[in-house]
Target: Cystathionine beta-lyase
Amino acid sequence: MSEINDRPNANGPNTQLVRAGYDPFDYHGFINPPTVHASTVLFPDAQTMARHGQKYTYATRGTPTTDALCNAINELEGAAGTILVPSGLAAVTIAFLAYLSPGDHALVVDSVYGNVRHFCDTMLARFGIEAEYYDPAIGADIETLFRGNTRLVHTEAPGSNTFEIQDIPAIAEVAHRHDAVVTMDNTWATPLYFKPLDFGVDVSIQASTKYPAGHADVLMGTISANAKHWRQLKHANGALGLCGTPDDAYQVLRGLRTMGIRLERHQANALAVARWLEQRCDVVRVLFPALESFPGHEIWKRDFKGAGGVLSFVLATDGREDFSLRAQKFLDGLSLFGLGYSWGGYQSLALVVDLGDRRVLRPPQEGPLVRLQIGLEDVGDLIADLDRAFAASAAA
Model:
């Protein structure tokens, strides 16, 4: 979807993406920033070295290439600062380590990305930090879960694999009354379709591996904080010594320039596929926030400007058939959809979701859950491929 921007002195989202983070005339007019490979940075004299009196001191603290990407993300997020890390998972875990200490209690949404749950149940537990999982639909009632030592609330909207939409403003308002930090994994929507910091979130997290990079060949995460929480995040990252590489930063920044038009295609294709799936008798239900039938649709419509291209559906069975066998037959019947993890790239992907680690939410009981990443192919071809897979899954 596109819209006319009638705000004075403000650019539209695609114009912003094309220009954010780097002025070509800062480097001889070249339209892309140079890829600066570095570890050691030289100082002109001992006094400058002693007081760290220059912009760049060592490459773990930034280079012109990584700064160009951070500046672009700051502009998109409305953030006081952004750090780059090697993956989306690292972005979540570093944010947790920045704000949590032994003895603290954290509230984590039960639809969280599975590897984040593993981190909470293993690493955080070893550090004496308790993670408690909550229903994504809890809204302002999250107040009943707060304790005197609750220091962080982690949100993810839509939730991983089942796409629950959270009432982020309501949760943030409660958390701030209890002086807790609110973090959010906003990978699905990106700052184009939802700006977490505008809705009360303190720290916005993206797996840049997905839509910003866009080509299934780069791993990176970004963590962006508001002014109140930026310094603590920056200090924690400096202590951990984790940073994104200049080559990856260059690739993500280049992908960012076309993210707006790619997202429009992902969204249009996904909505067409979701509506087609809804009409099938071999689909129990479709999990996609942009559908009017989705339970969280009204909150999504209120807060979000668009939808990502990832959705799930429950594959119908006859009640006696083995769920895993039925799902495998469906996946093996696909030819255009690749079988692989992750999403956000140009190619469509499919996998079967295991929700066995959920603590609060009950997984679908009617059949296996299949997740689809809807890519940039012609949507008629994707639907034809899915149709063949349904036929294959139903064959004896």
